[in-house]
Amino acid sequence: MIDLSEIKQKLSFPQDVVILSHRNPDGDAIGSSLGFAGFLRKMGHNVKVVLPSDYPLIFSFMKGIDDIIIFDHDRAKALDIIKQATVIACLDFNGLDRIDKIGPTVEESTAYKILIDHHLDPEPFADFIYSKTSASSTCELVFTLIEEMNGVNKLDLYDAENLFVGILTDTGTFKYSTNEDTYRVASELKKRGVDDYYLNDAIYNSYTEKQLKLLGHCLANRMEVIPEHKAAIIAITKQDFQDFTIERGDTESVVNYMLMIKGIEVAAFIREQPTIVKLSLRSKGDISVQEIARNHFNGGGHKNASGGSAYAKLEDVVTRFKSILPKYIK
After folding, report:
1. CA pair distance 45, 87, nearest whole angstrom
2. 157 neighbors 53 (Cβ within 8 angstroms)
3. Start-end of H helices in 85-206
């Protein structure tokens, strides 16, 4: 059981609440933010959702997404909302650096801070912390918290759909990071009317022609398989970004395709950007890409799904990744 006495008292009367999630938001960041916002509004609170950067267009169908304030688009408005908040809810991130330039404003705020997250080692900046690394997603934790507050009956269909999206995407459609509670929460959301076929179709059958051609290019021309280390790498260049006019969300699931190869247990999708090289890492079983990201690429995340970055040449990052594989793959 969670000790909810303090948070219940704080939310027992109308508050100005701002909900924040991490830069480059994924389905869990968006779903948990929108789902929690819907619940809090039904409790009588004035709620705004602020994200540091824009979201992938595949999530445009989600109810309430058009009302999200994007810091990169309107910095003054986003910061003003945060400064006026009496409650700040931080979802799906474990440290203020994950919200980039918004972090200092949150740190300076005297608002009551709530942290709900499932990543390792949460920073102790919040007044109320609900952190559980075994959870499939932050959406799972948000639902559990709402349940503990006897608020499930306040969730409408759209709130339930938004929370289901986070579970669906963070588990790769229930393929990894699941636990008993994941399926129980999914069942409870289904009882609220969620059509999981509709959500799967909306998210995973919404590729554009350009995105499919880009995927084909990555698999045919940019993939390197390293069978002796049970690994595969796709590295795309700045020229690839120009040739395919790659935009946010276009490469969202490319990394997962490499794990479809029999015998491959680690996948790295490495992207050369104007000033930095970014990595998306995935693994199977006991191989921890979280350790690889943390120890070698200034990143982190989950055991089987993490990300990182490096200020180096693309070819040097690829070489570095290859050189450390023997240490992590037995």
Report:
1. 10
2. no
3. 103-108, 138-148, 157-170, 180-191, 196-204
- Could you read off the pLDDT of 6-51 as tens digits, one per residue? 999 999 999 999 999 999 999 999 999 999 999 999 999 999 999 9
278 close to 254: Cβ distance less than 8 angstroms: no
Q: DSSP assignment of 204-248, as one string?
A: HS---HHHHHHHHHHHHHSEEEEGGGTEEEEEE-HHHHHHTT--T
Identify the CATH number of the domain in which residue 117 sits: 3.90.1640.10
| Listed residues 204, 228, 243: the one ending a domain | 204
The residue out of 179, 204, 229 marking a domain boundary is: 204
**Both tokens assigned to 291:** 């350790």
User: How many whole angstroms separate alpha carbon 256 and alpha carbon 266?
Assistant: 10
Tokens standing for 67? 């009302």
State both tokens at 92.
């799906």
CATH of the domain at 255: 3.10.310.30
Q: Which domain holds residue 20?
A: 5-204
pLDDT in tens, 50-80: 999 999 989 999 999 999 999 999 999 999 9
